[in-house]
TrEMBL record:
GO terms for cellular component: cytosol. Coiled coil: none annotated. InterPro entries: G_ENGB_dom, GTP-bd, GTP-bd_ribosome_bio_YsxC, P-loop_NTPase. Residues 44-224 form the EngB-type G domain. The gene is engB. It comes from the Bacteria. One of its GO terms (molecular function) is metal ion binding. Necessary for normal cell division and for the maintenance of normal septation. It comes from Paragemmobacter aquarius. Keywords: Cell cycle, Cell division, GTP-binding, Magnesium, Metal-binding, Nucleotide-binding, Septation. Its cofactor is Mg(2+). The lineage of its organism: Bacteria, Pseudomonadati, Pseudomonadota, Alphaproteobacteria, Rhodobacterales. Belongs to the TRAFAC class TrmE-Era-EngA-EngB-Septin-like GTPase superfamily. EngB GTPase family. This is Probable GTP-binding protein EngB. GO terms for biological process: division septum assembly.
Amino acid sequence: MSQLTFTLAPEPEAAAREKGRLLFAGPVTFVKGVVAMSGLPPADRLEVCFAGRSNVGKSSLINALTGRKTLARASNTPGRTQEINFFALGGDHHAPSEHKYLVDLPGYGYAEAPVAIVAKWQALLKQYLQGRQTLRRAFVLIDTRHGVKSVDEDILTLLDRSAVPYQAVLTKADKVSTTERDATIEQVKAALNRHPAAYPELVVTSSEKGDGIETLRSIIATLE
């Protein structure tokens, strides 16, 4: 099998940047938390989802993207909150076709989580990824301080089997030196080469500094 060439996502062009700005400048509303497939909202718009292990900075990234400090909240009890949370993007000034769901998946890799809860969440996640026709891309968050770990490999393998395009997003890039960041990028590239469904562009972000936020907004806004 030929290997993909992974690169860093380029700076968005002006039109894509503006489309991303407008999408996330509009209303962002919490729709519902889902614990079973029967509770999913109607599949009437495109959606993207965010997955990441505990403490990867997923809530901070979603809050940075939407410009809301408390839209997504990290659970105080790791592994206990096992809901899929849906947020609606796009207000009245957007055509309905441009509305999107931003979907926050529960964190994975909690050592303290009860086995039964983990098994139930994994089953729900698998059903969601395989059965949601409007899901256009999954963003897998990787901590720049740690790179791809074994718990990340599990979710990447599941995504390979789910036929959902997915893209790696490195978080907390401001927490390491440039040398450490570059080493992590190379480690992530090598790990993703084993996963054929991975999108070949990495997005490097810092929720605190704002790095990569416009790029990620543009990617989400221009998905069709």
